[in-house]
């Protein structure tokens, strides 16, 4: 009775594969340890293998395996080696796939002895090799400086495998505007002034000396705004465009009013010039606007869009329009209208 109780306790403590214990011998167990939590601390993690009760025969024949499936039918890493110690560390020197979910186990046997396997560890997620931090809002970001700071991060990696190097590119209309290569830092400011009222994207390529690399593109665009009051009436290109996108259900309109008390109208038209939806005046009936900038999200919010000045793809009667090309027509007082092209993908 005492022997059965002892064997049960050891099974809980080591969570290993325990066999029947001959009198006077400890239970045979194998355990695989890695940092706690659901995510590996590095893309080259360190494992610790602990064995007990395998007897004095040496060397120990060891396999540490990683698999994308819990039954280890899809092994992505299998390291075979020999050890003489009962406790030892296994350091991965090959980067694991970014954001992969993996299971791990150790299999050990003493020379000519039976095979013992540790309990499975996982699933655990490999850190993303590269993350863009800011600006990276799906609904867009705004800056009142011409050289905004771009911030990203690279996953922890074994020093002998790294360090990361970074290529950064700022794009305008999908075309490169300014770029830099070979950075080790994870922040950068463009070396030239960016244009005001233009929507920029950016991307980073991270790469290791061995050639592995990852590229990330910003989730949204960012715009350089002038903090001073505008001096002209202006309608910017709506965004996202085309819409809807994975991040936004509607498209957003930004516009500037350069004179106090200007009478503003903003309409969505079909290609024949027929009115589809009136944006300004909106439900509040306001059509006279003080000088200022409109359509931007409130400071401190995660959105770069004022929901009073959006179009969700519906007509004035609430029906969703057919996919196609539409026009945004903006007019201030009796001035000439400004027209922007809208692409609606449909729902």
Report on this model:
This protein folds into three domains: about 1-125, Sandwich (Immunoglobulin-like); about 130-225, Immunoglobulins (Immunoglobulin-like); about 235-345, Immunoglobulin-like (Sandwich), CATH 2.60.40. Helices cover about 5% and strands about 40% of the residues. The protein contains one helix and 27 strands. The chain has one helix at about 1-15, and strands at about 30-35, 45-50, 60-65, 75-85, 85-90, 100-110, 115, 120-125, 130-135, 140-145, 150-155, 165-170, 175-185, 185-190, 200-205, 215, 220-225, 235, 250, 255, 260-270, 275-280, 290, 290-295, 310, 325-330, 340-345. Strands 10, 12, 13, 15, 16 and 17 form a six-stranded mixed beta sheet that branches. The chain starts with a helix and ends with a strand.
């Amino acid at each position: 009775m005492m022997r059965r109780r002892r064997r049960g306790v050891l099974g809980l403590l080591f969570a290993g594969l325990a066999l029947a214990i001959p009198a006077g011998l400890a239970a045979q167990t194998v355990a695989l340890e890695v940092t706690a939590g659901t995510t590996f601390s590095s893309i080259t993690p360190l494992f610790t293998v602990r064995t007990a009760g395998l007897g004095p025969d040496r060397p120990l024949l060891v396999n540490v395996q990683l698999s994308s499936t819990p039954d280890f039918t899809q092994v992505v890493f299998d390291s075979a080696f020999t050890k003489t110690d009962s406790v030892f560390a296994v350091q991965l020197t090959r980067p694991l796939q970014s954001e992969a979910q993996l299971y791990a186990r150790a299999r050990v046997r003493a020379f000519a002895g039976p095979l013992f396997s540790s309990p499975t560890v996982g699933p655990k997620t490999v850190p993303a090799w590269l993350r863009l931090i800011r600006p990276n809002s799906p609904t867009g970001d705004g800056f009142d400086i011409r050289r905004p700071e771009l911030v990203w991060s690279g996953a922890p990696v074994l020093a002998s495998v790294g360090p990361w190097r970074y290529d950064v590119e700022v794009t305008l209309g999908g075309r490169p505007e300014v770029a830099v290569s070979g950075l080790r830092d994870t922040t950068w400011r463009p070396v030239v002034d960016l244009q005001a009222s233009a929507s920029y994207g950016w991307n980073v390529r991270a790469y290791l000396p061995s050639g592995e690399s990852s590229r990330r593109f910003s989730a949204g665009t960012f715009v350089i705004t002038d903090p001073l009051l505008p001096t002209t009436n202006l309608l910017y290109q709506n965004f996202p465009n085309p819409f809807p996108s994975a991040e936004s259900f509607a498209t957003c309109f930004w516009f500037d009013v350069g004179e106090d008390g200007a009478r503003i109208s903003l309409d969505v038209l079909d290609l024949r010039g027929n009115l589809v939806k009136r944006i300004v005046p909106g439900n509040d009936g306001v059509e006279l606007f003080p000088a200022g900038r409109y359509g931007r999200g409130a400071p401190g919010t995660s959105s770069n869009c004022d929901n009073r000045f959006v179009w969700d793809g519906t007509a004035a009667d609430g029906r969703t329009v057919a996919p196609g090309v539409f026009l945004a027509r903006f007019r201030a007082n009796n001035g000439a209208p400004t027209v922007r092209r809208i692409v609606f993908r449909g729902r």
